[in-house]
Amino acid sequence: xxxxxxxxxxxxxxxLELAGDPLLAAALDWKIKLAVTDLLYERELxxxxxxTAKRRGFRVEQLAPDGLQRALELRRLHPQLALxxxxxxxxxxxRSWVLLTMNPMLARxxxxxxxxxxxxxxxxxxxxxxxxxxxxxxxxxxxPAIKDRRTHYGSSEHSSV
Amino acid sequence: MIGKRLKLARxxxxxxxxxxxxxxxxxxxxxxxxxxxxxxxxxxxxxLLAMSRALGVSxxxxxxxxDLVLQGVEFRKKVVTRRKEEARIEANVLHFMERYLxxxxxxxxxxxxxxxxxxxxxxxxxxxxxxQTAVALRAxxxxxxxxxxxxxxxxxxxxIRVLTLDLKDVDGLxxxxxRPDKSLVPVIVVNARGxxxxxxxxxxxxxxxxxMQTTGGLDTEKAAHRFAGAFLIPAEALRASVGRRRQSxxxxxxxxxxxxxxxSVQALVYRCRDLEILPDKVFSRLFRxxxxxxxxxxxxEEPGAMKAVQRPRRFERLCYRAxxxxxxxxxxxxxxxxxxxxxxxxxxxxxx
Lengths: 161, 352
Known about the structure:
Chain A has helices at 12-18, 22-29, 38-45, 50-56, 65-77, 83-95, 104-112, 120-129, 135-153; strands at 6-10, 32-37, 59-61, 98-100, 117-118. Chain A is α/β, with parallel strands linked by helices.
């Protein structure tokens, strides 16, 4: 078994993609820690499949008062940010975590504030690279999935840790 | 900071500081909540969530723009409205307007002012002045004398934001939301639970409040009623339908007119009296009949009651447009629409 490699904080869209996705199980088995803010969890995930994910290790994180204050400042500066996304950036900044996002606008802002970002394609590639899923199944699932994400979310940079 | 919004939300809930503490299962003390309200400290996200649940508002409301303020609120009350209910309405209006202005900003839409006739608000001394104000507005908006199918949409096209809310003791209200740059945005709120014809009358009545300032002892509410009648049922259109003088009118004829103008039978009869089409004694006899039939008491249901159809859609359309154009993320769209991202995706996809 490998040790914990990274904690990735998810924005809403990324968390929704992961909730209920078999990839999540693989990622957690592989010891990538995935976290969401409590605000996002309450808003989007509590009522759906994330309870299962939480039992498996999907972490729900709180912001301390100064973190929430920082999130509100970010939101004031960037009114296009949703509260839950501003909180994700603030928490990622505070804890020096990587932000897993499918929102190009959020990725740009996070990068500007010095937060490292990844997208779901990166997570899929990493998971496959480490062979946490059977190779043949990966190939069937991964190719169309990547193609699909690129169609919808443009050409964000991918890199591996 | 969250002080102003928290205080308003607590007033709307009717909870004391200690009551809120209990409603939050003692997660924080009443003293701590007092400090949040005075902006002396900030909660963490867990406490913010607990407070929003206990107060029945979203966390986004509590951390909203404290610089937006509600001004000149005029409630059209059925009975004396409790402070708690007024605070609830004010909180809802502020939260809605904040989201509305936010999506307009994302789309770079800036409506400088609503399209009122030059010189408005007009000084109104007698009921006939209210009548003239309605005529002037119809002319300014190029409405001719035809009935108007969807009043809420019309108002929004002309720069007046419209909000429907579940209201207990209030039919509607007019207010101005003051932006940080000191500009004012008019908003009309109508009861989502009313019948369509009552909603329409309330919308027109509240529009009257935006356009008129009464003087000389003229009752403001009566002037707004007269304006609403004149705006919804233009004099010439009504005379063309029923004639210039009548000694009686049947319920059947009134119900046909109700369909044509989209107003209640009672509003039609009032209008006929205002225009001296019906004499006072016929008016009184008809209203005694309406009382006997139970039309003048809750739930105010007349035959041919219109469903509550005046729900404004512009805000929702703007959110979907902003999302489609990439001006906001789907998370932001979900926040503005108070939906989940899943729901937004489903609505964007449309029915299959």
